[in-house]
Amino acid sequence: MRSFEVVVVGAGSAGCVVAARMSARHDVLLIEAGPAALPEDLRQLSRPIRPPYDWGDTVDSDCRELKYARGRVVGGSSATNGAVALRPEPEDFDTWPANWSWDDMLPRLNRIEHDLDFGDRPYHGIGGPIPITRHARADWAPFQAAFAFGCTAAGLPYCPDHNAPVSTGVGAIPMNRQGRTRVSNAAAYLAGARDRVTVRADTHVARVVLAAGRAVGVELADGTVVRAGRVILAAGVVQTPLLLARSGLAEPNPHVGRHLTDHAVVSFAARIDPDTVPDDAPTLQVIAKTTAKRRHDLQLTPVARRNADGTRELDISVSLQLPAGAGTVSPTGTDPSAPARITWPFLAMPDNVRRLRAGWRLAATIARESGILLDARDADDAAARSDADVDDLIRRTHYAFYHGVGTCRMAADPADGVVDPMGAVFGVSGLHIVDASVIPTVPRSNTHLLVTALAERWCDLHAA
Ligand SMILES: Cc1cc2nc3c(=O)[nH]c(=O)nc-3n(C[C@H](O)[C@H](O)[C@H](O)COP(=O)(O)OP(=O)(O)OC[C@H]3O[C@@H](n4cnc5c(N)ncnc54)[C@H](O)[C@@H]3O)c2cc1C
Q1: CA-based, 20 to 30 A from 185: which of 209, 311, 363, 455?
Q2: What span, in angstroms and rounded, lies between the C-alpha atoms of 437 and 243?
Q3: Does residue 77 line the site of ligand 1, with CB under 6 A?
Q4: Ligand 1 centroid vs 70 CA: distance in angstroms?
Q5: Is residue 436 within 8 Å of 14, Cβ to Cβ?
């Protein structure tokens, strides 16, 4: 294959932005392991995504194996995710190097969006590539409205715009969607640059090719070498550290594949009046942000479970947004197709379990206050359970939210991370990482908008 000025590995949330923007000035090849696109019906929100459009990873958590979804298609996880478009909070940047502050990032968060509801506010954007919209309150399904009512009865304020800088409480979810179709970064960024970017789908990169301390290209799984002036890894929080390991770059840097942080989740569920769940109700409409110990360390999201016997349940997922502890990602073999080994120690941290327990009890209170439970004893019994009983339930039923970051974290000092504040891999020239893996710690939000804004900022820093 011919050589390129720039090779971007991974066409996900970040890779689509970087390839599209760099292609304005450079000859860019974008390589993606997964297929060129999702089938039309899977672009609809609420359709489960499985291999071959997902990597099928699992994590080892407290003796349980949890699913750890990752998109594997042009668009990456932005093509398979829930389209929840929540922004990080200003304090989330406290763990980042100095030139990645909220003030640096807000202009990028504004630039990437076309906020159809609040675009005229100074802290929002209009005209950007990602449409952001919220379900109007009048259109909320009855069970969603009842959840919001339960939240306010439990003391949470109503929040019209969760993406306003100091918002709190319960309100509509900002989402990157058009109707019920998710708008991935393949649609938002890459589609407009398709005549400039060479895209190779169904092509697995095995490793980075190095010569005298410089990245000079990539080797594909079939042994083909593609020469490049610059290599940009955007393969995501699981695959980017594996690429570094297969390239011989993990041994000299102990931070590769470490510092994985993510949100841990547990659900409270109780039977509700089936009439509150219309057949065509969207899966997601309302979300609540609240605090167990540190500001907004809990996120509560209601969905309706439709059981085969015709019964309906309100399922409130309680997500721990600022977990203590960190996991790891490492290779299980040298073959590029060998799966990752991912460790997830979050439930080993007593403080994490304590905060999840508080969130689970709050969810039970909200459910009772919602007024739609078929039997209020479902909530009362939950409230009466002992701490040990709730902790046991959390251990048995918790799951992952797929917002992992940190496995190639950014740091000012080479002793503390994998990339410098310009995204350059320490000790190697011509090699950058731009994806969720460089984010030092998981933010209080879902991660797609943050990864997109990170990629925009990286392009600005490199005048791409
Ligand atoms: C099921 C799911 C639901 C989610 N829901 C939300 C949500 O509602 N809101 C939100 O904000 N965030 C959500 N997230 C998280 C968010 O989507 C991710 O944090 C974000 O997309 C990560 O972007 P990225 O660029 O780092 O990686 P990705 O978008 O995952 O992109 C990495 C790409 O690299 C490719 N790749 C990997 N290795 C190789 C290789 N060796 N060779 C070639 N290509 C390779 C992958 O196939 C993939 O396409 C969700 C994630 C998942 C998986």
Answers
A1: 209
A2: 12
A3: yes
A4: 5
A5: yes
Q: What is the pTM of this model?
A: 0.98
Q: Is the CB of 174 under 6 A from ligand 1?
A: no
Estimate the crossing angle of helix 102-111 against helix 448-461, to 10 degrees.
100
Instruction: Give the distance, in angstroms, between the CA of residue 452 and the centroid of all CA atoms in the same chain.
Output: 11
pLDDT in tens, 335-387: 999 999 999 999 999 999 999 999 999 999 999 999 999 999 999 999 899 99
- Give, as one character, the DSSP assignment of residue 135: -
What is the distance between the alpha carbons of residues 315 and 29, in angstroms, rounded to a whole number?
A: 43
Six token digits for residue 193: 């640059």
Please state, in angstroms and as integers, the Cα–Cα distance from residue 286 to each residue in 148, 181, 189, 282, following that order. Answer: 7, 18, 27, 10
Residue 228, both tokens: 């490049």
78 lines ligand 1 (CB under 6 A): yes
Q: Is the pLDDT of residue 464 over 80?
A: no
Compute the Cα dihedral for 378, 379, 384, 389 and give only its sign: positive
Residue 94's nearest CA partner among 445, 439, 448, 407 is 439
Nearest CA to 239 out of 27, 15, 459 is that of: 15
- Ligand 1: which residue has its CA nearest to atom 16? 448
| Single-letter code of the amino acid located at 296 | H
For ligand 1, whether the C-beta of 235 sits within 6 Å is yes
Q: What is the pLDDT of residues 422-436, one digit of tens each?
A: 999 999 999 999 999
Q: Which residues are bridge partners to 429 per DSSP? A: 214
